[in-house]
């Protein structure tokens, strides 16, 4: 269990270690996040690390909690609810995807850790699953709100697949640097446009 720092200097040191761990994750995956590497990258000390996290697992829990705090601070789910009220399906989907990408880009490394790291901690896994379920439920609300434009009879199945499409494409943009996967870089604007078009096409015509 991570210990919550009380003083400004302690908070700054803690954030440097969390930032270092996220950078190491981006560069080399979970195996690159060692206690020694985090200490070296953050220019802190072994004592400072253990005082705040107690263990590597405590560090992972703190990283996990930090992303959940970002979701709360950015009021992400309320933002996604706002997309549902758009006047038509295409606009609603575009707004929904845009708001997700803004959040993802703002906290890219934290989101990558949250989505990619395969934790054996049952509490962390359940917290991650709960975020996914809320996201899927919001997509279902959006599809129901624009059901007159949706060709699928089973709205739950259709909205679940739409959520999977958005999540899958978003995950790829977290795993790979721009242009790494295809050899041709795509901007965030292009990704939002193409993802939205794909989801709308599935819901309206597939």
Automatic annotation (TrEMBL):
Keywords: DNA-binding, Transcription, Transcription regulation
Domain HTH tetR-type: 11-71
Classification via Pfam families: TetR_N
Transcription among keywords: yes
Coiled-coil features, chain-numbered ranges: none
GO molecular function: DNA-binding transcription factor activity; transcription cis-regulatory region binding
Record keyword Transcription present: yes
Name of the protein described by the UniProt record: Unannotated protein
Organism of origin: freshwater metagenome
């Amino acid at each position: 269990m991570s210990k919550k720092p009380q003083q400004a200097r302690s908070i700054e040191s803690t954030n440097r270690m969390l930032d270092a761990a996220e950078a190491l994750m981006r560069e080399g995956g979970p195996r690159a996040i060692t206690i020694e590497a985090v200490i070296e990258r953050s220019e802190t000390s072994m004592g400072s690390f253990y005082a705040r996290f107690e263990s590597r697992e405590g560090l992972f829990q703190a990283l996990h909690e930090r992303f959940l705090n970002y979701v709360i601070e950015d009021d992400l789910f309320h933002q996604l609810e706002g997309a549902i009220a758009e006047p038509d399906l295409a606009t609603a989907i575009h707004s929904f995807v845009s708001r997700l990408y803004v959040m993802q880009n703002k906290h890219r490394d934290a989101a990558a850790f949250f989505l990619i790291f395969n934790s054996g901690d049952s509490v962390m896994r359940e917290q991650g699953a709960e975020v996914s379920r809320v996201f899927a439920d919001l997509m279902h609300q959006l599809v129901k709100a624009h059901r007159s434009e949706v060709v699928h009879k089973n709205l739950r199945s259709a909205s679940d697949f739409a959520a999977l499409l958005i999540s899958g494409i978003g995950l790829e943009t977290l795993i790979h640097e721009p242009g790494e996967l295809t050899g041709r870089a795509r901007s965030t604007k292009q990704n939002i446009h193409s993802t939205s078009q794909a989801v709308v096409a599935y819901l309206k015509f597939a």
